[in-house]
Amino acid sequence: MMQAPTIVIAIASALAPQANTAGPKPGPYPLPTVQSVASSGGEIVRASFIDGYGKPAGVVAFMRRPGEEPRVEVRTAAGGTLATAVPLDTWERVRSAAALFDRTLAPVPSADGPSICLHPWSVSVEAVDPARSGRPTAIRKAVQSTCDTGLAVPLAFNLAREAVAALPACALLDARQYRNDIARLAGCTLLEGDRAAAALARNAYGSDWFASTRGDRTEYAIRHLFFDQARIDWAGTTAEGSAAVVKI
After folding, report:
1. Considering only CA atoms, which of 94, 78, 83 is closest in space to residue 46?
2. What secondary structure letter does DSSP report for 176?
3. What pTM was computed for the model?
4. Most exposed: 1, 25, 144, 195, by fewest CB within 10 Å?
């Protein structure tokens, strides 16, 4: 019986406009460059994404430095940040997947003839291979559009998928509500407090039943009614409107 009110309050807290009483948050620190990781003797596999309209969509980097655990760090286009240590098997899986991304594939003629590709995403992938016996440190790079054939795009989106899986609250977000895992990671940066509960609330907020109209087509979706007119009764404490609800 308590689950539905919890979702409602999480939606209000996570999604409704709120006054900033804690002052501005510090800006995100920049991701380390591949050159700095290479000079420290570390390893990194990093993908930068550009969306179909030519705008930066985010960066995902898996790295391992001497004396440190493997970790993943995410920066979104809006400046959101996510970071966590990852298990060794996740790191080894990422390293293995990045083994050949900079190779050029032989062109294969299309049996369907010419095709038109509009609004492609593009990626830039970089990796540092540490020095081994008889082989110096190597920095590998590749740039690819989703209109082209290659190995960089599959690797880049695989990094985003691995990042989602490594971040429990992000993994709870319903993938069907996002264009891809980069967008899902961006959505995850909006979660605060009990981030798992907020993720479930966000799923409810984005669900078809919550967004659908009722009766006449001119009515607002339920989500708009929630923001403007909802009256919440929580254990005898009542509030109406998003600004009041978040103070319960």
Report:
1. 94
2. G
3. 0.75
4. 1
